[in-house]
Amino acid sequence: MRNDYSYIKQLLDVFLDHPQPDLKMRDLSQFKDVDDHKFVHHMEILIDRGLICAVWPNEILTFSRRIDCYLYPSSPIRLTADGHDFASELAKSGTLKVISERFQEEGLSVVIEVAKKLAKSRIEKELNKLV
């Protein structure tokens, strides 16, 4: 399955817009109820890259596979500091467009680096205006 960075942005927006610092899997039901496979794929790569983690100590986020369904982790989940950085940058005007148009076929680690460089460039431009 290919990565869908628009979908990832939508997932991360739920975390950013949530009134609490963590959420439960049911808070993401609009994604998992539509396409379990797509949801699990994208959640697992976000977990693999350390952008999402479990709230409970020593809890490992895993999606157990069954014949016709997935079992979801029971721990509340949250964005890590890196997850907040990436989600915030994806929320900036133009970032998702650049990623979608020029880096759609790249893996998540490359896209995270692209987002960091876009943020750094934007910040340097803003700082130059102040000096």
In short:
With 131 residues, the protein is mainly alpha-helical. The protein has helices spanning 5-17, 29-32, 36-48, 81-91, 95-102, 108-130; strands at residues 52-54, 64-65, 70-71, 77-79. It has one domain: Arc Repressor Mutant, subunit A, CATH 1.10.10.
Task: Give the biggest beta sheet.
Answer: 2 strands, antiparallel
Report the order of strands and helices.
HHHEEEEHHH
Gap from first CA to last CA: 46 Å
CATH class identity: Mainly Alpha
What are the salient characteristics of this protein?
131 residues, mainly alpha, 6 helices, 8% strand, globular
What does this protein look like?
This protein is mostly helical and 131 residues long. The protein contains 6 helices and 4 strands. The chain has helices spanning 5-17, 29-32, 36-48, 81-91, 95-102, 108-130; strands at residues 52-54, 64-65, 70-71, 77-79. Strands 1-4 form a two-stranded antiparallel ribbon. Strands 2-3 form a two-stranded antiparallel sheet. The longest helix has 23 residues, at 108-130. The N and C termini lie far apart (46 Å). The mean pLDDT is 91.
Helices and strands in order, then pairings?
Layout: H1 5-17, H2 29-32, H3 36-48, E1 52-54, E2 64-65, E3 70-71, E4 77-79, H4 81-91, H5 95-102, H6 108-130
Antiparallel strand pairs: 1-4, 2-3
Helix pairs in contact: 1-4, 4-6
